[in-house]
Amino acid sequence: MEEPNVGELKPPERVLLGPGPSNVHPRVLGAMNTSIVGHLDPYFVDIMDEVQDLLRYVFRTDNEWTLPVSGTGSASMEAGISNLVEPGDTVLVPSNGYFGARMESMAQRAGGETVRVDAPWGEPLDAVDVQEAFNEHQPDIFGFVQAETSTGTLQPDVSELVDIAHSHDALTIVDTVTSLGGVELHVDDWGIDVSYSAAQKCISCPPGASPLTLNDDAMDKILSRETEPRCWYLDLAELEDYWGDNRSYHHTAPVTNIFGLREALRIVAEEGIEERWNRHLRVSGALKSGIEAMGLEMNSRDDAWLPTLNAVRVPDGVDDDTILRRLVEEYNIEISAGLGDLEGEILRIGCMGHSARAQNVLYLVDALGEILDDEGVDVSPGDAVAATSDAL
Amino acid sequence: MEEPNVGELKPPERVLLGPGPSNVHPRVLGAMNTSIVGHLDPYFVDIMDEVQDLLRYVFRTDNEWTLPVSGTGSASMEAGISNLVEPGDTVLVPSNGYFGARMESMAQRAGGETVRVDAPWGEPLDAVDVQEAFNEHQPDIFGFVQAETSTGTLQPDVSELVDIAHSHDALTIVDTVTSLGGVELHVDDWGIDVSYSAAQKCISCPPGASPLTLNDDAMDKILSRETEPRCWYLDLAELEDYWGDNRSYHHTAPVTNIFGLREALRIVAEEGIEERWNRHLRVSGALKSGIEAMGLEMNSRDDAWLPTLNAVRVPDGVDDDTILRRLVEEYNIEISAGLGDLEGEILRIGCMGHSARAQNVLYLVDALGEILDDEGVDVSPGDAVAATSDAL
């Protein structure tokens, strides 16, 4: 068996305007390019406390159980779901995007029975439908998505949906993967019981340690489970024994990722969370202005526009693959295609964290305009860039 | 809710001679300090192939299903166990260390019934006992540990134990967390069905993407499961759909960790796997010579000496906490204490990967000798360093 002969790592310098990862601030990479320490080192133990405080800041919560899960976003998602859901629980999940289906699969594997509240892909849930689903199924847990990465749709009335669940004595799990640090979110004020997110979206940290927070009601349900959670690696009572005061060894934390996450969250705190939400609105709003000035159409209605992930209808006369390929090959820009019911129908243009900057949206609007013009679509690239510029 | 005020990251420069993480080569940190790309980027897809080839090289296998799991070592451990074990399977696990107990917990959560083969902590399993356990319980799966991190014990006869399992039509899961890349291991030649490891031990990469390999027999069992694996995040059939030819999105890979793992494995390949095993024997053997010249005693018998993690009896007249604390505070050296049945009885001194170098073991032997001398233990630090030097 010969040694494989692989060359030096030379990744291309992409402008990351897809559904994540977003571009990483050099300070975050610098924090990861430091001496590693042990996961039980006294220095690291202090870092753990700081990361938890920073996570509470971005989630807008005082929740004790607030920690980064040692995996990418789907790991914090499954940690939330697989600990909260006990065999026999009924779990209400949405059908209006890819991540509702993932919730459903995770809840079923945890032993839950799942029921659905429907909405078309690309539209938010309607509170009336949620109310009806509660009346019909009396679920124990309601999971839904604040910012659907697969469709670029914002759920604009999170606190209202949480209130419906609480009035039926159900707990809520809210997916904030594509909203945390980019879209207004108040875990405590809105009463959210469990929320999970990812590092590589609006926090702009390489993926590998993923934010999760749970309130006391969720914690109490987990601590009074009759059966163990089905995944040892994601067992929150054991994780909390490491992240909490006991500092008991559970598994080796991804130390370097935690260093990076700390720096990325520090940058969020320096900017200020509300200013950061406003920046996403402003920069992505300028992108939207450019897109619309080009004659293209947004897929979401205005109250469900998701500034961190813009769903744009693919115009007639060109296919999405061509646009994506030319953006990467000719401009080094990554955006993404639609999924599921929206496959071939939309472009997904992210505007998250360190990627959400004026130079990136100007460059994207210019590049997209040039490509569409070249492909024979009737657009005016110059007007589009001007509209973007005016809105910045 | 105020912004937490946390300062600049300034981790201390530890000499990492504990049970992991080991020190990371600057080239590995450099590879992580590069532009991030998307997890479906064509550039990253090529990187994935290279990482898989490099993993096959260190595991000494041609297994198609060879991939890094998106989490730390316990994630690849649970990926192996929770996919292979189906509800109702009987799983034989060892009782001679911490990680056998972890296997047991994971197998039970996957729905398996567990039975044990016993040996004292600090001793390897006896093949006769394994044979008897097979005769008594007829397990479907036998999990055991090549290199017990909790006790510093090598299982010297891995292929013999695998043969016993195969003669009873059972599959094997071998923990190589503290052996892969540091201790002789031949997954294919020894007939191992499933083996998992970690990045931060003898591979010397920050933890976060963890090696796993499965042969065709294990793959066939998984692909013919009647129930879904209980953890979505670690579902190997779905992971293989992303890492294999389909490249179907499952979850976001920890791109930066994969970059680091690739560089760490490149360094292994440049050194050559056999030369790397020999280096661990030579450098750790010198450490052992120094320890013994000091008058201290190794905990493991000679044929179960684990060069990557040396278990040293705590001498009379001093407690382990004092030694560990003084090593960190006065010398910036991390070693570790005993666990479970060996708590307070042993020191665990790692010698792994980039940490397994002459300067580190000379420094540790010198520091340990000075501390013990200062604490009133009758040792001769100068002789110990001389013995270490002679053996290098």
Automatic annotation (TrEMBL), chains A, B:
Region (Disordered): 1-22
Keywords for the protein's UniProt record, in alphabetical order: Aminotransferase, Pyridoxal phosphate, Transferase
GO molecular function, one term: alanine-glyoxylate transaminase activity
A Gene Ontology BP annotation from the UniProt entry: glycine biosynthetic process, by transamination of glyoxylate
Domain Aminotransferase class V per the UniProt entry, residue ranges: 35-338
Record-annotated membrane-spanning stretches: none
UniProt entry tagged with the keyword Mitochondrion: no
Domain of life: Archaea
Pfam families referenced in this protein's UniProt entry, alphabetically: Aminotran_5 (PF00266)
Listed cofactors: pyridoxal 5'-phosphate
Family: Belongs to the class-V pyridoxal-phosphate-dependent aminotransferase family.
Protein name, as recorded: Alanine--glyoxylate aminotransferase family protein
Native organism: Halorutilus salinus
